[in-house]
Amino acid sequence: MQVIAQLKRYKNILLDEDISLTAAKISCEYKIPMADSIVYATARINQAEVWTQDNDFKNLPNVKYFKKKKSRHNR
C-alpha cells in the first residue's frame, strides 16, 4: 500500500514548446547542457524542486544539490 501512495506523487510531463523555449534560455543563461536545462525548465514550470548530485545544477535556485560520496573505487 505504501508503494502505491508514493507512485501517486509523480506524474509524466510532456516536453512541449513552453518547456523547450524555457530550457533553451536556461541553457544559455546558466551555461549548462540542454538535457539538464530541460530537466530544470520542467521543474521550474511545474513549481518543483530538482534533487540531484549533478554538478551542473549546483547553486541554481530551487535545486537541492548533494555532493557525491567518494566510493572505495574512486579513492
Which percent range describes the beta-strand content?
A: 5-15%
Major beta sheet summary: 2 strands, parallel
Radius of gyration based on Cα positions: 15 Å
**Estimated structural class:** mainly alpha
Strand order of the largest sheet: 1-2
Shape: globular
Low-confidence stretches: none
Number of strands: 2
Mean pLDDT: 87
* SSE pattern, N- to C-terminal: HHHEE
Number of helices: 3
End-to-end Cα distance, whole Å, is 41 Å
> How much helix is in the residues?
40-55%
SSE diagram, text form:
Elements: H1 2-7, H2 17-30, H3 34-45, E1 50-52, E2 63-65
Helix pairs in contact: 2-3
Describe this structure in words.
This protein is mostly helical and 75 residues long. Helices cover 43% and strands 8% of the residues. α2 crosses α3. It starts with a helix and ends in a 10-residue tail after the last strand. The model has no long low-confidence stretch (mean pLDDT 87).
Short characterization:
By secondary structure, the chain is mainly alpha-helical.
Notable traits:
75 residues, two-stranded parallel sheet, 8% strand, mainly alpha, globular, 2 strands
